[in-house]
């Protein structure tokens, strides 16, 4: 075995100590398909029992791995089968399932359980409708449960009835928790082309094609990428791409190691490594600052989309080589409230929702953690969802909308979520009405891109 | 199984001896030591065999950290797999 290089050792320690390198999440995916019964209370009990049984050592194992390798693993989480699939056959109030999952989260010490979800890209089953309508109540009554709804896909097109409904549901989530900085809306994401093995919240759920139980890992490391770029101020763009690839490789290898080890210790199969650059509100852990390091005065300036496209592609190229199992969202995240540089750019007026929408065409996910004026109508939110879903549908990629109407607040004010969710300034949005378009209902047909067979 | 112990901080008498002593107490065999002193900044990297450790790995790491804290030094004890996986193809 070759002797380790001093430079490599110090580089790793520098990355962890100063550049916020960490494993963002180890997420255990658990199938609940075998928990559905024809009685809601019995289903709830089976769900609680199964989640607690399979994940009983998740937090402890994560902490052991942290200590062994000296790598912080920030979150230990769980994703479950879209709850609409088991709420349907069980009948009754789906909120009971959210409460059962919350009890499991409390006992296990995980910080989020994702999967209060429905997949309705082509239409609703009765279970889907019941679940979607219950989302505001479920998210207001729980702390650690995340909800998501898939309203479109490249294969199916966009379900515009679901889009219209989600515009109302997002508003209701905010209204129900107006006294708590509208937190419920921050735990709800509306997706197009949702991946079934995503370990990141709020969009994590355990798809029906996944095994009974598995471990997925989400890496992080915007701070490390920024630090590498900062050390090479005169590099050309081609050289920047290469530097990012090399860094992404190292970050991903760390995720692969943690995933393999967690899978071995927990005795469950290793699912995927999600190669995402996930920012936090901490200084030095920002995707926006990477773009600025490339040479933009502020994130949001002309050139931002090009820089982000370069970053996103280089992260994937470096990461793919480093892991045998890549999946999830895999790309750069651009949430506003969870990224210190994005918050600064939005507060100074450099970054607009329209620019963010353009950026979502070239990176992973979409309009994420954006605070809207409190009087934004359900139709405007629905139309924003439709725009974003259209970008995802046509480009065969995942897109998502997680926006928070700040009830009672307007431009210039701020919502404070705390923790990893951060805080966000209210951003301006077009006030022209799309109401007629949204009220039509129906389905945007699947695009030509779907006809690949 | 091997671990990498790094110690960084202000140079003073007895750093190597204390860390090596703690390794011996825990039955961790020191395989290799690299150290440098630049002006008064001390940096040491020690490769130790931990396959016969007398106590669990995290307690060994805590013990080394304790010595570092006592002397105002920054210490890290990490399994070598992390460096191998990040820096070797």
The computed structural class of chain A is alpha/beta
Fill in the CATH topology of the largest domain in chain A.
Anaerobic Ribonucleotide-triphosphate Reductase Large Chain
Secondary structure tally, helices of chain A? 16
Distance between the termini of chain B: 19 Å
Shape of chain A: globular
- Into which percentage range does the β-strand content of chain B fall? 35-45%
The radius of gyration computed from the alpha-carbon positions of chain B, rounded to a whole number of angstroms, is 13 Å
CATH architecture of chain B: 2-Layer Sandwich
Quaternary class: heterodimer
Explain how this protein is built:
The complex is a heterodimer of chains A (about 450) and B (about 90). Chain A has about 450 residues and is of the alpha/beta class. Chain A has two domains: about 30-190, Anaerobic Ribonucleotide-triphosphate Reductase Large Chain, CATH 3.20.70.20; about 220-440, Anaerobic Ribonucleotide-triphosphate Reductase Large Chain (Alpha-Beta Barrel), CATH 3.20.70.20. Helix content of chain A is about 45%, strand content about 15%. In chain A, the strands form two sheets. In chain A, strands 1, 2, 3, 4, 5, 6, 7, 8, 9, 10, 11 and 14 form a twelve-stranded mixed sheet that branches. In chain A, strand 4 (about 145-155) and strand 5 (about 155-160) form a beta hairpin. In chain A, helix 2 packs parallel to helix 5 (about 95-110). The mean pLDDT of chain B is about 90. The interface of A and B includes residues 4, 70, 253 and 256 of A.
State the main characteristics:
heterodimer; A: 453 residues; alpha/beta; Anaerobic Ribonucleotide-triphosphate Reductase Large Chain; 2 domains; 12-stranded mixed β-sheet; two-stranded antiparallel ribbon; 16 helices; B: 89 residues; alpha+beta; 4-stranded antiparallel β-sheet; 3 helices; 37% helix
List the helices and strands and how they pair.
The complex is a heterodimer of chains A (453) and B (89).
Chain A: H1 6-18, E1 23-30, H2 40-54, H3 58-69, E2 73-80, H4 83-90, H5 95-108, E3 112-119, H6 126-141, E4 145-153, E5 157-159, H7 160-176, H8 183-186, E6 188-192, E7 213-219, H9 222-230, H10 237-266, E8 270-274, H11 287-293, H12 304-322, E9 326-327, H13 340-347, H14 353-359, E10 367-373, H15 378-394, E11 399-406, E12 414-416, E13 423-425, H16 435-439, E14 443-444
Chain B: E1 2-10, H1 15-25, E2 29-38, E3 41-49, H2 57-70, E4 74-79, H3 80-87
